[in-house]
Amino acid sequence: MIRSDEGEEAVSAMVTEVPDGSVRNILEQETLKWVFVGGKGGVGKTTSSSIISVLLAQVRQSVLVISTDPAHNLSDAFQQRFTKVPTLVNGFSNLYAMEVDPKMEDDDLSDEGLEGFLSELTNAIPGVDEAMSFAEMLKLVQTMDYSVIVFDTAPTGHTLRLLQFPSTLEKGLEKVMSLKNKFGGMFTQATRLLGLGDEFSEDAMLGRLEGIKDVIEQVNRQFKDPDLTTFVCVCIPEFLSLYETERLVQELAKFEIDAHNIIINQVLFEDEAVESKLLKARIKMQQKYIDQFYMLYDDFNITKLPLLPEEVCGVQALRKFCQHYVTPYKPSLVRGTIEEVQQRISTLRLRLQEAESELERLQGK
Questions:
Q1: What is the pTM of this model?
Q2: Can you name the residues that pair with 232 across neighbouring β-strands?
Q3: Helices within 255-337 (DSSP H only)
Q4: Does the annotation place 44 within a ligand binding site?
Q5: Which of 5, 69, 111, 258 is catalytic?
Q6: Hey, how many other C-beta atoms are within 10 angstroms of the C-beta on 77?
Q7: Using alpha carbons only, how large is the chain's radius of gyration in Å?
Q8: Does the keyword Transcription regulation apply (predicted)?
Q9: Nearest in space to 141 (alpha carbons), one of 219, 45, 61, 38
Q10: Is 69 annotated in the active site?
Q11: Could you tell me where the beta strands, DSSP code E, fall in 315-361?
Q12: Was 46 annotated as part of a binding site?
C-alpha cells in the first residue's frame, strides 16, 4: 500500500496541484450529531477535538466534547479541570466538556444482588465492562439536549473496541442465556432460599442487559448514518502514522462509519524560510508521506497544520489556532520573496555578531 522511493517524483507531481482541505464540511453539515476524533497516540487528537468543538460552538446551539481516553488531556488543553459530569468551558456559553473512564468504576458495581452478578459477568467476558460503562454514559448524554457531541477517543485500538461494543454485549447476553438454560431452576430456587427477591431474578438480569444493549444498538445505528456521524482521523507525516491511519480507515469502512476528513499535524512547510540541514531533511521526508496521504485519500478533506514552537494550551491559544482548521495554512515568509531574503540577511548578521562576540571572549581568556 505504501510506496517505496521508486516513482516518488511521479507521485509528487500527481499531488502538487491538489488543494488543501479544511474541516469546513463538518461545520456546514448541520445534521451531524456525533463527531469522533481518533488516531495513533501522540499525534494531537485532543488539540484537534478541542478545536473542532470550539469551531462547532460558533455555529451550533450547544456542544459537548467528551474524552474517552484513559490518559485524559482535555483538562490540559482547556487549562480547566473536568470530571465525568459535563462542565461549562470557561469563556463559553454553549460549550461543555467531560472526561469519562471507559472502565467501570468500583462504586458503579456493588457486591450485592444483581450488581454483584453483573460484576462477575464483566470479568467473564472481556470488554463487557467498557461496553456497559459506555452505554450508561450514552444514556446520560441522550437525556441531555446537545446539538452535537465530539469524542476525543483513545488511541486506535481502544477506538475500534468501542465500535465493537454492540457485538460484545451480544456475547454477554448469550453467556447469560446459556447460564439461565443450564442452571435456571437451581438458580431460581437458590435466590428464593437466600431471600434475594425479584431484584436478582433471571428476568431482572436479562432486562438490565437488554436495556443496555438496546441503547448501544440504537446509538450504533446512528453511528452508521453518515448524516449523523463522521470520524476525523488525526495523524502526522510519518510512516507509522500513515500505516495506522490506513488501518483505521479500513476498520471504519468495515463498521460502515463515515470518514472523509484527515488532519495531518506537525507539518514543516517547504516554503518556510528554513536554513537548518536537519529541518530540510525532515521536510523532504515529511513531503514523501504527505504525497502518499493525498494519493491514498484523494476523496478526503486533508487539513495540514504547522509544527509550532509551543503547545496549544488554553482557550485563547485554541481560538487563535482555529483559523488553520478552516483556512489552509500559509507560511508568513515565503522563500524567494524580498521579505524572506531581508529576514535571512538580518538573521545572518545577528549570527555573525554572536560568533564575533564569542571569538573575542575566547581570545580574551
A1: 0.74
A2: 37, 261
A3: 277-296, 315-321, 323-326
A4: yes
A5: 69
A6: 28
A7: 26
A8: no
A9: 219
A10: yes
A11: none
A12: yes
With vertex at residue 68, the alpha carbon angle to CA 152 and CA 71, rounded to the nearest 5 degrees, is 95
Q: Is 265 within any annotated ligand binding site?
A: yes
Q: What does the alpha-carbon distance between residue 69 and residue 247 come to, in Å, rounded to a whole number?
A: 19
How are beta strands 63-67 and 229-235 bridged, if at all? unpaired
**Residue 312 DSSP symbol:** -
Task: Show the cell assigned to 52.
Answer: 473542532
From first to last of its 365 residues, what are the pLDDT tens digits of the chain?
444 444 444 444 444 445 567 899 999 999 999 899 988 888 889 999 999 999 999 999 999 998 877 666 888 999 999 988 889 999 999 999 998 765 544 444 444 444 555 555 555 555 555 555 666 667 666 677 899 999 888 766 666 666 666 666 666 666 766 766 665 555 566 555 555 555 555 566 667 667 766 776 777 788 889 999 999 999 999 999 999 899 889 988 888 889 999 999 999 887 665 667 888 888 899 999 999 999 999 899 999 999 888 888 899 999 999 989 998 887 665 666 776 677 667 777 887 888 888 888 888 87
